[in-house]
Sequence to fold (136 residues):
Amino acid sequence: MTQISSGSTPASTPKPRRPRPQVMRLTDAAAQRISELTQRADSEIVGLRVGVKNGGCAGQSYTVEYAHEIRPTDEVVEDKGVKILVDPKAVLFLLGTEMDYKADKMQAQFVFNNPNQVSACGCGESVELRPAKIDG
Fold:
């Protein structure tokens, strides 16, 4: 009796998925500041929620707020021991962004180094963003 091998894999074997890119990354300064804010908060927070909203003279602005819970639709980014939760509507605008924290004599703020940013207004309060191009 002769056995014939087809050399193919069964159709039920799933194709390996390509790993998803991390939406954002944090600098050491941003991670340290998020850690400080998390520890000092009046109520328990799981991290910071980051998003983008329409408005301002350039069209959009970044949002950062305390996150008291992880929503099922949040994109959870864990970097340098802290969590940021990205609003699902903002993911394509924030893909590849580095979140930094800068403090000087006049102000202290989170800064977004975003490759999807087309322009910013003169005061620095709003930006124009385009969705990230994803190679398929």
Observations:
- The radius of gyration is 20 Å.
- The beta strands are 24-26, 47-54, 60-67, 75-79, 82-86, 97-103, 108-113, 117-120, 127-129.
